[in-house]
Specification:
Largest sheet: none
Order of helices and strands: HH
Shape: rod-shaped
Distance between the termini: 11 Å
Strand content: under 5%
Number of domains: 1
Number of strands: 0
């Protein structure tokens, strides 16, 4: 490989690594936010004082159950995407590392 092409390949590999890493961080942040939403729904409510409060608590629990299912589905998708993006980021890192090592090799 010609010497003048290797630095450009290294720069492109670094850009790909940065893009893959940024996508992974964004997905991981989305997972963290969904987990926080799920935890907020799981906090125990105080015992209702009267019948009206008990009805409201029951209605809330029904709504929260649906919301938990929605969050769990979205979280499963985000976690699957994170696994794929982790593999892509690792591959990009490996490529970048190999190219940098090639540049440091004696000719």
């Amino acid at each position: 490989m010609k010497d003048e092409r290797l630095p450009r390949l290294i720069a492109m590999a670094a850009m790909v690594l940065d893009a893959k890493s940024a996508a992974l961080r964004k997905t991981q942040a989305a997972c963290t936010a969904l987990k926080a939403q799920r935890e907020a729904l799981d906090r125990p409510a105080p015992e209702p004082a009267d019948l009206g409060a008990a009805r409201a608590a029951l209605a809330y629990e029904a709504w929260a159950a649906v919301r938990r299912a929605e969050i769990d589905a979205r979280l499963a998708v985000q976690e699957a995407q994170a696994k794929v993006q982790m593999a892509e980021a690792r591959r990009a890192f490996g490529r970048h590392l190999v190219l940098e090592r090639m540049a440091g090799m004696p000719r």
